[in-house]
Design goal:
Largest interface: A-B, 51 and 59 residues
Largest sheet of chain B: 2 strands, antiparallel
Order of helices and strands of chain A: HHEEEHEHEHHEEEHEEHHHEEHHEH
CATH topology of chain B: Glycosyltransferase
Strand content of chain B: under 5%
Number of strands of chain B: 2
Distance between the termini of chain A: 31 Å
CATH superfamily of chain A: LarA, N-terminal domain
Distance between the termini of chain B: 37 Å
Helix content of chain B: 40-55%
Order of helices and strands of chain B: HHHHHHHHEEHHHH
Structural class of chain A: alpha/beta
Strand content of chain A: 25-35%
Shape of chain A: globular
Strand order of the largest sheet of chain B: 1-2
Oligomer: heterodimer
Radius of gyration of chain A: 18 Å
CATH architecture of chain B: Alpha/alpha barrel
Chain lengths: 327, 288
Amino acid sequence: MSQRKETGMTRREFLPIAGASLLAGYAGFEGGKPAPRRAFGPSPVAIVKASSYSEDLASKILEGVRACGLDVAGKKVLLKPNLVEFDPHTCINTNVAVIAAAYDVFKTLGAAEVKIGEGPGHRRDTYALAEMARYVDVSKFESLFVDLNRDDVTPVERFADRGEIYLPNTALRADLIVSLAKMKTHHWAGATLSMKNFFGLVPGSVYGWPKNELHQVGIPRSIVELNRIFHRSFAIVDGIVGMEGNGPIQGTPKPVGVLVMGSDLPAVDATCCRIMGIDPQKIEYLNLATGQLGVTEIPRIHQRGESIKSVRADFQLMKQYSNLRLV
Amino acid sequence: MAESFLSARLDFLRRVQNPDGGWGYFPSKQSRPNQSWIEPTAWAALALHGDPASGRAWSLLKSWQRRDGSFKPSAEVDISNWATALCVNVSNAHGENPEKAIRWLLDAWGVENDFPLHTTAKLKIFDPERNFDLKAWPWKPGETSWVEPTAHSIVALKRSRPSQHARERIGTGEAQLIDVRCPDGGWNFGVPKVLGIDQPSYPETTGIALIALQGRTDIAHSLDLARKWAAETPSPMARAWLTLALRLHEIEPPDNNAPLKPDILITAIEALGAPGGNLSLLKTGASA
């Protein structure tokens, strides 16, 4: 029997604990003091049904954006899809139809500028990956898209226990970052949704492929820190077809038929978890984010559109994550 | 045909060189005009070696060397960086002794070789799914080691008349690359298994790893895969790395008639791997 089975830990699960927690305090604490908890909510989260990518997704997204009261007039908007790897047999990435529809919606709503940017954590050739995922089908893609891994950068002070983090100028200059995430399980974080999607804002040119700095700090803590820095955000989670099982890359497609949207990203991710049959209170990054960045408790989320119950579709979980199941 | 492929790339590199002597990743598409970065600058300097443009690039890179001997990724980003290995290659090409940078490389390794990770893996408190005894190189200090920085560091040390200590690091570095090879014979960024499940390799990292493994006799399967991928991959970057790797292994790659991309890294690697390119600057032969 392997030792992994006895301890339930492997290298990547252990690295954040040993590398960051043992040596540099543990997540949720800054300089030995608990991070301040603030009053958030109630936060609107819209669940909009969309059974396929061939539907009029722009209307669906517009419905959700309006239900959440988002105003983008005159703003510089960065659409941040989840482009990780490409495998034609599964559904790793945010579907191009969602990106194209979001682009149209934000232009229609009067955004001063809409760009698309991503910095994949594993693959070097972002443009080839975008081509394989058919992102080039978005009109004027070449001029809209920025490879955030190889963008110019500016230091931002205070990132967890690190003095600073370098982040791409395209993201720092945006008035609003729209996390166009995919609804997926994740073999380290339990689930990857709108907040974890911000890992793609960290430049590989400084931190490498993968962005190991984030693992050293700890995945949950890095998620929260990036969302603290990029707090002017909105989430649109592509749950039309999600990924279950061994996500975020090797899982299997899971049709759910929803788009989940909101300005409070912890609230959006908690809602997605409940739709996926995952208990958000057992997702570490959501526990850290609750009260710091937004809300996750049901009474503090104003559900708009469909109810969670009407769209719930339990995702298959890896054996190691069976304890995450929402009862 | 080959000459025009190469000359088109070298002409492009000369044309878009920044006033400071460096290159950014994407000329005319950067958020800050004329911003130079270490990686495209080092590769372009090698591709253009023998041209005055390469000398200007090396002058810029030298100005980015830190007191600890490492090089920083750009003028504004003041941290030690894996691309120090690339600067060792440029330094060697210009006939200068990169002693301080080599010392830094020899003092750099992944945190998995240190307490507590190494000890806890030895005690089987967790399964690292790779051999933590083998020293390789991280992207930046304080992190675990990965395929790409390891491959470039091996090449840099091999081409620097390695000391006994350097030869030992080359040996363990190569062993680490073999240890993290994926079951299909290629490499991804350095994780062949996650939770016991085999991970796929990628064409671009396979090409990069093979550049470090010149002269080895236990990689025939990997070279076969590289040749297959060089013909099939839709990624110009992957094709450029694979072409370069195959030529360094003295294997004729499939024809690469890819159109010129406005991407300095791809252009420079394509130029190095093209017939008549400065391939010899990366030639190492077998491990010492």
